[in-house]
Specification:
Low-confidence stretches: 1-5
CATH architecture of the largest domain: 3-Layer(aba) Sandwich
Shape: globular
Strand content: 25-35%
Helix content: 25-40%
Structural class: alpha/beta
Number of strands: 10
Largest sheet: 8 strands, mixed
Radius of gyration: 20 Å
Number of helices: 7
CATH superfamily of the largest domain: P-loop containing nucleotide triphosphate hydrolases
Distance between the termini: 65 Å
Strand order of the largest sheet: 5-4-6-7-3-8-9-10
Number of domains: 2
CATH class of the largest domain: Alpha Beta
CATH topology of the largest domain: Rossmann fold
Order of helices and strands: HEHEEHEHEHEHEHEEE
Mean pLDDT: 87
């Protein structure tokens, strides 16, 4: 009879935890061989096993900080290719410039209604000219999200959905979900009247990942330039 049958409950829990950790490490190594789009933020790319998965839908969620992360990703991407942004009116180009985005390599498509946004993303993915497509989260049928996920896979692009919180249909098709939250403000000099706002510290949680456990976290500094 195997020795494990005589192990105590504590030893079984320890062995199970060790096995779970090893399987997680193997999955992370396997994921590292998959193509990703790096953000050039070391802490974030380590959390995401290299970056955002190419050929898939991913979400950036939360009330604060998600556009700082998206801008950093767009800045890195425009050094080598094109980025498309489907703008529902919330886009602030000067902020992208400060983050290092090359605006001459950005395609901006104005669209406010859900079906207009979905159609714009559909056309961009079929054209296969952009490595990254940024879009706002909108209420779409499951079939529409599934079609966009299929088109992303065929084109090899990253579709990054900006959402305060992902709904059920979006969560189901997203290969990765990342949540940003404000930890504290960063200040230059002394606090109070003579202090100067420098940015903020973000807590970034991994809500969903195909090969990594949910719950992992990174801490980032979003600095105003």
């Amino acid at each position: 009879m195997p020795a494990v049958a005589h192990a105590t409950q504590s030893e079984k829990r320890t062995a199970f935890a060790a096995l779970k950790a090893e399987l997680s490490a193997q999955n992370r190594r396997r994921e590292s061989t998959k193509p990703t789009l790096a953000s050039a933020i070391p802490e974030l790319d380590r959390l995401l096993c290299g970056g955002f998965p190419e050929g898939a839908i991913a979400t950036l969620e939360g009330a604060t900080g998600r556009w700082s992360v998206a801008a950093a990703l767009a800045a890195t991407t425009t050094r080598r290719g094109l980025v498309a942004i489907v703008d529902d009116g919330s886009l602030y180009p000067p902020g992208l410039v400060k983050a290092g985005v090359a605006l001459e390599r950005v395609i901006v498509v104005p669209a406010k209604k859900a079906l207009q946004i979905a159609r714009a993303v559909d056309i961009l993915l079929r054209a296969r000219i952009c490595r990254l497509v940024l879009m706002p989260a909108v209420a779409l049928r499951d079939a529409v999200w599934t079609r966009l996920a299929t088109l992303a896979q065929r084109s090899g692009a990253v579709v990054l959905v900006m959402a305060t919180r992902a709904g059920a249909a979006l969560s189901a098709v997203a290969e990765m979900r990342v949540h940003c939250a404000l930890e504290r403000a960063l200040m230059y000099g002394t606090h109070g009247v003579w202090g100067c706002f420098a940015g903020f510290k973000l807590s970034v949680d991994l809500r969903k990942h195909r090969f990594a456990p949910s719950g992992d976290r990174a801490h980032l500094d979003a600095v105003v330039r």
